[in-house]
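User: Okay, second chain of the day. Same drill as before: sequence in, structure tokens out.
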Amino acid sequence: MSRQLQEPRSASTEGSVDLREFLQKVAHRKWLVLAVVVLVTGLAAGYSYSRPEVYSTTAQVLVRPILIQPGDTDPLDNISMDTEAQLVESTQVAKIAREIMGSSAGIHDLTKRLSVATPENTQILQITFTDASADGARAGAQAFARAYLEFRAQQAEDEIAEDTAAIEDLILGIELEIQVLDDDIATLTTDSPAWQIAKSDRRSAEARRQGLLTQVETINTASRNPGEIVQQAERPSMPISPKHQVDLALGVLLGLAAGVALASVREQLQDRIQSPSAYRKVLRAPTVGLIPESPMLRGDLPRLVTIDAPRSPAAEAYRTLRTNVLAACKGAKIRTILVTGARQGEGKTTTAVNLAVALAQVGRSVVLIGADLRYPRVHSVLGIGNERGLGQVLLGSVSLDDALVDTAVADLRVLTSGPVTGVDEPVELLQSDRMFEVIRSCRQADFVILDGPPIEPVADSLVLADLVDGVLLVTDAQEGTRAGVSRTRLQVEQVGGNILGGVLNRVDKSMTPDTYGEYEQRRGLLHRSAYDDTDRELASLRQEATWPPETSSRV
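Assistant: Same drill. Structure tokens below.
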């Protein structure tokens, strides 16, 4: 048993995920990626070439203010380009455009294909029209440009005519008034007061009539020109939609992205521990135990199935684990075993306790040590107290003999973790000389089983791995990944730990050997070939196992 921790080897990228590894995984699925690219590109091509062609062209109209007098200094203040743009899209202009086009299309359909833009700081209306044909697009843009100008010109004419008619009515009234005054003047004595008043009224009426005539002349001089078409709509040479090249390029890019994503997902799913043989390959050690999924082993306080349910498939699995551990330990004379896992919740404590009980049930003397000083659970599974234990022994407040507890299981003694509230830094206690002495003293038993903390969150078990003869790594078959197992194996190897084997926990019944599975469920060559390697490995281990252990030297 090595006492000194080895220097870690140079860091490896094994188990890590970087760009190169990601690309390699995608390359493994290159045919899947290619198939997705071809499929998506084909769908994009089908969609693109099934769509009708749409053409578009634009006419530009220069807007001038109407009803502006020649003397106005800044007539552009009378123009609101936003209002003019809305006017182009109005129903009245659309009706005129439809007449110009000679179309029978609905007003809503025409305006839906129309768009108007007004470049900033200009008097330009950009009138764009789309149609299923190039000629139709040109005709529509031209028609709306002309319709707008005609509508605005007619507006000017109507306003001038309305204003002129109103003034002419006033002039007619004044002329009637003048005629009455002329008749009165003719009957009055010249230069009489009444005659003079009548003459004055006539002059006043004549002045008002003349003023109104001047207004009519002024109104008639107002601008009626709403603008002009400064750029005729040209016949488009190619459709704006669909753009086949763009659609195909997008199809390739989307297909590539979808293919890479699908390949990545498949690789991620493939990273799961799918079989005992896959677990053995990534762990590079035998799979010595397959513990089936069982409600009795789940929850905050799993049951001790080797005692509470000895005929259950789970209990039989632990007995198989015991047999395989005995066989593996025989040749190497391994007696101190650390049971740990990569992450919390993979079943290491349940495995450690049930393995210790199973060994004791066949006459092996066993010391079970609760070496998880952060989240102790050994005492809870066994249903014993935890008033003092390993933590107090390492602190020197309690002797090892006083901390060891006999259990109801013959040949099984337990060193619980003890209260952990007074333990500041567990890894320092576990790395101390006193921990080495505790393990050496406990080696008087046939086996010493240590329940250690998970490896990835904390370094405690890495310290313990160099103090024991072998490490059992427990992995959850439903949650564990190849990368996680590989990282954990690498960390144990870096500190000089010896991985005795792996225990696959929560195994689906379809993956378990017929020892505790339904024999009639295993049908066909494909099912048997998936587990032949595991069955041969377990069988060879069982053949080496003997019930009487070799006489071990006392340390």
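Residues 174 and 205 are 6 Å apart (CA to CA).

User: Thanks, on to the next one.
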